[in-house]
Amino acid sequence: MNFGLVEVDEPTQKFWNEVRDFLDSVEESVVEHEWKTGDGVNVELYRQLGERGWLMPSLPVEEGGIDATPLQCAILTKELHLHRIPLNSYSNTMQVDAIIRAYGTPELLAEVIPGVARGEVRFCLGYTEPDAGSDLASVKTRATKDGDEWIVSGQKMFTTTAHYAHYALVLARSDPTLPKRHGLTTILVPLSSPGIEITAIHTMGVERTNMVFFDDVRVVDRYRLGPVNQAWTVMANALKIEHGMGESSSAHYDVDGGLNFTRTLALTLDAAVEWALSEESAGRRPIDDVLVRNKLAEIATHVELGRLPSGPVGRVLSSEFLIKDTADLIDLIGARSLIARGEPGAVGDGWFEYAHRFAQGTAIYGGTTDIHRSMIAEQILGLPRSRAT
Ligand SMILES: Cc1cc2nc3c(=O)[nH]c(=O)nc-3n(C[C@H](O)[C@H](O)[C@H](O)COP(=O)(O)OP(=O)(O)OC[C@H]3O[C@@H](n4cnc5c(N)ncnc54)[C@H](O)[C@@H]3O)c2cc1C
């Protein structure tokens, strides 16, 4: 691994300045709305990013990108996070886009893909159900073939950003007579179809997610992704992308959940350093205390460590650092760190209590840290499977 500094040449610096200038000009109300609602996207800003070719920057210009180098892509993602631009819809869309490109018919690709880079088409992930999360092979949502159409019926759970998405990638049971993993099919369901109802779930971490109900929703067969009853292969690829493994995970964006969590930890560290330098009591600042300096140094080390490993290792480390470090900072700063944003006396304008709440969900979504530990054991270390199926 090369730990040297990255050279930023003139065109890259120019691009960086352009990105910063644009993101600096984003209205505070966009970030404020996200604080309040956890919607995961601002539709107008999303379209503007698409217009600039910044949603899928590594694509050639004629496909909606800007032919960006990997360094430019990394700069863009970093700045989007630093500016706290709502990105949930973006990362869901990019994951489904990769699956459509791999499994969609030319007809389907022509219909949906051109709008993705332009910021006009968004996707969400319809995998989880009330009784099927880690064990996705247990999904019950039915897809029954009727001529050239599928009739989809059932309920999905935690379908984040469905309320602003145009299509959901739905994992459905197409043959209940086959063993669990073999009777599943993946279908891209247009969310404007009759029979779909979306209900909000507001989480402890502010993020808004949804329940989606499908009541005999008719979808033509060209929206099927991959062969009938073989969704397990499609899902293996979809989850690889979500878990930051394999080629596609680094194409023009990073969906490695770990990196996002580490960026939140970096913002938390900045807020903690500011607190340690600015508060004063009896002529002493928190930073004057060696124990405070030790804790800040430990968190700074975690920020660096969390950035290094990719895939499931990075995801587990980053989530666990974030959960532990935000709790430690709340202990260190004291009760005032639990006062919410906008309330009198809030330390760091409520950042610590927000980050602590946000941290808890990072152990769950995109597959729990327990499941990622199994992946590390089985797929990276080559240890035997912990379960029979
Ligand atoms: C904020 C949020 C957003 C989400 N967004 C989406 C989305 O957009 N689309 C979507 O499809 N899903 C989404 N999810 C769902 C998420 O992927 C699931 O919640 C997650 O996979 C866990 O499933 P579960 O909730 O059913 O818990 P369960 O699978 O019931 O797990 C319960 C506990 O048992 C443990 N456990 C279960 N199985 C094993 C095992 N084999 N080995 C070790 N431990 C195990 C888990 O780690 C966990 O601690 C989201 C969830 C949240 C909270």
Could you outline the blueprint of secondary structure elements for this entry?
Layout: H1 10-24, H2 28-37, H3 43-51, H4 70-82, H5 88-103, H6 106-117, E1 123-126, E2 142-146, E3 149-156, E4 167-173, E5 184-190, E6 196-202, E7 208-220, E8 224-225, H7 231-242, H8 257-278, H9 290-307, H10 311-333, H11 351-361, H12 369-380
Parallel strand pairs: 1-4
Antiparallel strand pairs: 2-3, 3-7, 4-5, 5-8, 6-7
Helix pairs in contact: 1-4, 5-6, 5-7, 8-9, 8-10, 8-11, 9-10, 10-11, 10-12
The structure holds flavin-adenine dinucleotide (FAD).
Flavin-adenine dinucleotide (FAD) binds at residues 92, 124-128, 133-134, 158-160, 203, 207, 209, 361, 364-365, 367-368, 370-371, 374, 387.
**Sequence stretches where pLDDT stays below 50 over 5 or more residues:** 248-252
Question: What is the overall shape?
Answer: globular
Count of distinct strands = 8
How confident is the prediction overall: mean pLDDT? 92
Strand residue percentage: 5-15%
* Cα Rg: 22 Å
Number of helices: 12
Describe the structure.
This protein is an alpha+beta fold. 44% of the residues lie in helices and 14% in strands. The chain is built from 12 helices and 8 strands. The strands form 2 sheets. The chain has a 4-stranded mixed β-sheet. Strands 2-3-7-6 form a 4-stranded antiparallel β-sheet, with no helix packed on it. A hairpin with a 5-residue loop joins β6 and β7. The chain is globular, with a radius of gyration of 22 Å. About 1% of the residues have low confidence. The structure holds flavin-adenine dinucleotide (FAD).
